Amino acid sequence: MKKLGLLLSLLLIGTVAVQAQSKSGLGVRGGANFFTWGGSDVNSNDYNNRVGFHAGIYGNGFVSERFSIEPGLYYSVKGTQNDDMVNSRAVLDYVELPVLFRIYATDGVNLFFGPQASVLVGSSFEADALGNTYGWDTDSINDFDAAVVVGVGYNLPKGFNLQASYDFGINPVFKDSDASVYNRGFKLSAGISF
């Protein structure tokens, strides 16, 4: 709970800083997640992309005409799945705090990158068998996740925007383990700035 409070405090500070800039704005954004586990200890044949979602708020403040800083706060469902006999999967729920640096090639097209900190708010392993879904809570997942985010966005008229990004996890998924297993995946998003 302390970590969630820290994330909310950082978002508040970032939002105040964004509002102090000219051409600033707040917005809402959401979309689909396509995540799996990556790393040197992952056999890519074992894991497939699991479809999840993300939704939240952001603030975008222009530092110059072609550069902005965008903190955000999102709820995001990640994980992975295995197309084995029982369709086993890991479902990982996070509260994410990205801080993105946007470079505008044109008024519409922008490239972005930045760090992202995430706090685990729920995790389970699930499987389907005999027509039922069974779930097990797990304490083996790290409470904190970190990633580098890169992507491309496009601003539409009336404040609408679209973007595609990749989260490159750099903090191991499992705690107390030497295994190199990380959250990795794509996000497709739509948003609107106010």
Please trace the helix and strand order, writing H or E for each element. Answer: HEEEEEEEEE
Query: Average pLDDT across residues?
Result: 86
Main structural class: mainly beta
- By CATH, the topology is Porin
The assigned CATH architecture is Beta Barrel
The strand order across the widest sheet is: 1-2-3-4-5-7-8-9
| Total domain units | 1
Distance between the termini: 30 Å
Instruction: Please report the number of helical segments.
Output: 1
Protein name: Outer membrane protein beta-barrel domain-containing protein
Keywords: Signal
Signal peptide: 1-20
Organism: Cyclobacterium marinum (strain ATCC 25205 / DSM 745 / LMG 13164 / NCIMB 1802)
Write a compact overview of the structure shown.
This protein has 194 residues and is mainly beta. The protein is 9% helix and 62% strand.
Write up this protein.
The protein has 194 residues and is mainly β. The chain has a single domain, classed as Porin (Beta Barrel). 9% of the residues lie in helices and 62% in strands. It has one helix at residues 2-19; strands at residues 25-38, 50-64, 67-81, 89-104, 109-129, 132-137, 144-155, 160-169, 182-193. The chain has an 8-stranded antiparallel beta barrel with strand order 1-2-3-4-5-7-8-9. A hairpin with a 4-residue loop joins β4 and β5 (109-129). The radius of gyration is 18 Å and the shape is elongated. Mean pLDDT is 86; it is low at 15-22. It comes from Cyclobacterium marinum (strain ATCC 25205 / DSM 745 / LMG 13164 / NCIMB 1802) (Flectobacillus marinus). Residues 1-20 form the signal peptide.
